[in-house]
Amino acid sequence: MKKVFVVLSIMILAISLFVSPIFAADNNSPELQNGVLLYTFKNNIFSYKFQVEYKDADGDLPRYMFAFINGSRREMIKVDITDNNSKDGIMYILILDEDELFKLAPKAKEWDIEYWFRTNDGKGPVITKMSKLFALDTESMGLSTSNSGGGGGEGGPSSSGCGCGK
Length: 166
Description:
By secondary structure, the chain is α+β, with helices and mostly antiparallel strands. Helices cover 18% and strands 33% of the residues. The C terminus is likely disordered.
């Protein structure tokens, strides 16, 4: 009886050692895409929006989503609270006014900010590369970037393509 117990114990251990890596290999790491720091300027006040898209081929939701600004961790929120489809991407944002950002990054006044994003789907962390890039948030400012290089004929009375007269 003792031999049967030992043989069964060894078989269970051997099976678990071979099966565990197979199940673990089925996980695809999530991706953080299009991470950016957008800024707007309205009424002589700057505001800032850190934005990143979370995608997971397995459909796993993130356990957390953080933006690290000059090493300081801040939690991000979903743009659409009802969006749970991580296979097609979930957009996360962190909005800060200039005073909040300047507390985290005093050199932000000179446009010197380092940031990156971090998440975890429950199976391991994913971190983006550090970035210092800024982009004007033309959408939230109501600006159009179409024909910004000129040359379009649909700009109204002006033939420069600037969109004048629309």
